[in-house]
Structure formats: C-alpha cells, structure tokens
Design brief:
This protein is α+β, with helices and mostly antiparallel strands. It is about 50% helix and about 20% strand.
Length: about 475
C-alpha cells in the first residue's frame, strides 16, 4: 500500500493483480481530505455565485449549500476520483491499456461531509518483459532480379486496372465486377445481422482457386456461385467466422450472405501504347523502363517487409508474457486496421488488401493473440530505441499510399482521418523503424527468392495443417 504524503490530495492506494495484466486499484480518501476539498469547492463557488437579491460573492453560505450542495458534492466527487486515479497511475508507473471500470457491480458511494470516500476500479495494463539480445536474431534476405516476364505481367495488371469498364448484364466471367445488395445472417441470431445496397464483389481470377472476398470475409467457391450469373440474380454463400474475428459475435458462427446483383461491369484492358500515353511517357520502351524501375522499388519494399516479418516472428517467439485476459473488440480491430494500412502502403491494390484481411481474419486464435502480443512488444521497443514518427515521415507514407491509389495526398489524408485510422498509419511507420533497428543488429543472410518462396509455402502449409 502506498500513501500520499506530498500530494495535495491525501489518498491511500492499494494495488492487487487479479489476472494477467489486470490491476485492481482500491482508493481511500480520508474524511479530513474530503472535508477540505468540499470546503475549497464551496468557497470557490461562493466567491463567484450571483443570486437575485445579493451582490456577487455575498449570498449566504446556508442558502448556497441548500440550493447547490448536491451539484457541488457530485462535482467534487468526480474531481476526487480523477485525481486519486491519476495519482495511482503515476505513483505506481502503470501503463493502462483500457479505461478504468467499476469492479463487478460495485456502486461508487456518494460523497458525504465528515466521512471517508473510497472506490475500487479495475484496469488492464501493458505487459512487462525483458529486452532480448538482438544480435541472436537471424534474418534471411530474399533476392531476385526483375525479368522481362515480371515486366510483362505488371503491364498486364495495369492494363486491366486502368482499362475501360462497360456495363454488362451477364453471364459473368472471371474478373467481372459487380455492385449489389447484401443481407448478412449469422447463426443463432434472429433477422438480418447487416444489410447494405452497395456491396462490391469481383469474380475470382482463375489462379485464385475459387477464393474471393465479400464484405471483408473470404469465401471458398465464390467463383462457382457467380460464374454464369447475370444482373438481377441472387446467390447465397456461406463461411464460418474465425475464432480470432474482431467481432466476438461472429467467432465460430456460420455466416451467410444473400447477394443480389444490381450492376455488373467488364473491363477492356488498355494497350501498351495507351498506357504509355496515360502515364505521360513518349514511347512504349520508356514505359517499360518506368515499369521496371517501379517493380524494383516494389521488390525492395517487399524484401524489407519479408525481413521485418521475420523479426516480428522472432520477437513473438523469444519474448514471453501473458496477455490481458479481456481482449477487447477495439484492440482486435486495431490490429486488423494496422494490417490494412501496412498492406496499402506497400502498393497492394485495395481489392487484394481486403482479400488478405479476409484471410487474416480466418487464421487461428493463436495467430490473433500473436498479433496482439506483437502490438505490445513494438510499443515497448519503440520506447527502448527512442523511436518517434515525424510529421515528414507521416506525410511521406500518406503520399506513397495516395500514389498507389491514384489519389492526391490531401485526399488520402482526409480519408484516413475520417475513418479514424491515422493511429494505425503511425503504428506502421513506428513498427518498421523498430524492426530496422533490430535488423541492423541481427545476422543477415542472402537467400534466392525461389528458396525463400519454398520456406514461405512450407510455413503456410504448416499453418493450415
């Protein structure tokens, strides 16, 4: 127990760990401190009070107490609670990750003159851990040369991305896009869980093996459900919510979407010459050189991302601590949104990002816990390394995201701010800088891209098993 001796507020603080990363804080304000604060509040109120028939500050004390005593008590109680809680956090150097909440159904008592004031709250705090030896980390650096086949494939992708859409009625083919009405139902819940008239969907490409995303969920056999359909048709697809979904009510539940196709379009790809003209390049040859440069930059970014992912895996395996028992929906959502910002900043188109996020939601519960664990680790290591995110770095990342989506930086910033995702962008930059600090100390070994892909595929197969 710690008792304040120098603070303006005399308060006794008792801390109890009730669960991993969960602290129960009992706060006791003696009767003398309560009376002193009430007297201070009443005196301040009296000096400013202006009642009819009395000059300012001259109204009788008894009249003021009778008329405004209740509000003064409530206001003083709130101030005492805030100050006592802040003192408990600062004196014990706690790192809250949740808002304080009453213990069970405990009712906070009224503030009464001549009586002590006490209340108990519970909070979740950031976990503690020892910093590992980063020289023991081993990182593989995948290397690859950009070939003509890579350039040709990228030009083909751009030709569809900037192609000319045309309305169609059907039958639908691979890569056709549609807008429709979606009605979502969840096992065990009455009525519709969610409805929208503007659900975007794309018929999966042949190489996607039938998997596709709809409303942020990944569906097997989406191509079978959509191929050959036409505007006006309704299809039903189902999947099972992952155990790690950020919405608790969807975890492990059968989710069915009834999708009615309202509009559909097919893309006619642009020619190489048209693409060159669109990007302001004089010849197709110069356009190909420009594409090569862009691919090399993307390769370097993916290379760095692969190294950072290895750092993340080793941090999770080498640092051990228990997570807070109450994993809130807000925290789970934050990890998903951070992944969204990280993928967009790497130049991955929005549709592919949503597909990857759908896959991410489908991972095991352990994977979700690992992501949350990494969030705490990175936050603490950012302090350890003294890593901060500057406004220039933030503007640069937003500009890069805007360029990938053919938008102006100010538009992208406004979009991010409106969606409340700016903190996720900051976290992406911060985590990258932390990872790079660790890579600088780690043992780095070059590895051919083919060999690296085999490692990734083996890891993926193991994860699915």
């Amino acid at each position: 127990m710690a008792t304040a001796t120098e603070s303006q507020l005399d308060v006794e603080i008792t801390l109890t760990e009730t669960a991993p990363c969960t602290k129960q804080i009992k706060l006791h304000v003696p009767a003398a401190a309560v009376d002193a604060r009430l007297e201070l509040a009443l005196s301040a109120f009296m000096s400013d009070a202006a009642l009819p028939g009395f000059r300012k500050g001259k109204a009788p004390r008894a009249l003021l107490e009778k008329r405004f005593g209740g509000s003064i008590l409530n206001e003083t109680r709130g101030q005492l609670m805030s100050e006592a809680y802040t003192k408990a956090i600062e004196d014990n150097k706690l790192r809250p990750i949740s808002e304080p909440r009453p213990v069970d159904s405990e009712v906070i008592p009224e503030l009464t003159r001549g009586k002590p004031f006490y209340f108990t709250v519970e909070i979740e705090v950031a976990p503690e851990f020892a910093t590992p030896d980063f020289t023991s980390f081993e990182v593989k650096k995948p290397t690859i040369e950009v070939t003509p086949d890579h350039i040709e494939g990228e030009i083909l992708r751009q030709s569809y991305r900037w192609g000319t859409p045309a309305r169609i009625e059907g039958p639908l083919e691979n890569l056709d896009r549609m807008l429709g009405k979606a009605v979502v139902s969840v096992e065990g819940r009455e009525g519709a869980y969610f409805e929208t008239d503007k659900a975007l969907c794309v018929v999966p490409a042949k190489e996607d093996e039938g998997k596709g995303a709809l409303l942020g969920l990944l569906f097997d056999g989406l191509d079978v459900a959509l191929l050959g359909k036409k505007v006006g048709d309704t299809v039903k697809v189902s999947t099972t919510g992952s155990d790690s979904h950020e919405r608790e009510e969807l975890r492990g539940k059968k989710i069915t979407i009834e999708y009615t196709i309202v509009e559909a379009e097919r893309i006619t790809p642009r020619t190489n010459k048209e693409l060159a003209e669109m990007f302001g390049v004089e010849t197709e040859e110069l356009f190909m050189e420009q594409v090569k440069d862009a691919l090399e930059q993307r390769r370097d970014g993916e290379q760095r991302a692969a190294m950072r992912e290895q750092i993340a895996e080793q941090l999770i395996s080498k640092i051990d601590f228990e997570l807070p028992t109450k994993l809130t929906e807000e925290q789970a959502t934050r990890t998903i949104e951070q992944q969204r910002m990280e993928l967009l900043s790497r130049g991955i188109d929005p549709a592919s990002v949503e597909t990857r996020l759908a896959e991410l939601r489908g991972k095991s519960e352990q994977s979700a816990k690992d992501r949350l664990k990494l969030f705490f680790i990175m936050a603490r290591l950012a302090e350890y390394f003294g890593v901060n995110v500057t406004e220039q770095e933030l503007n640069g990342r937003i500009a890069a995201m805007a360029a990938q989506q053919n938008a102006r930086p100010e538009q992208m910033r406004a979009q991010i701010e409106k969606s409340g995702r700016m903190n996720e962008v900051v976290s992406v930059i911060r985590d990258a800088k932390v990872s790079d600090r660790i890579i600088a100390q780690a043992k780095v070994t070059d590895i051919a891209a083919d060999e690296w892909n085999k490692i990734v595929e083996a890891k993926s197969a193991s994860s699915k098993a």
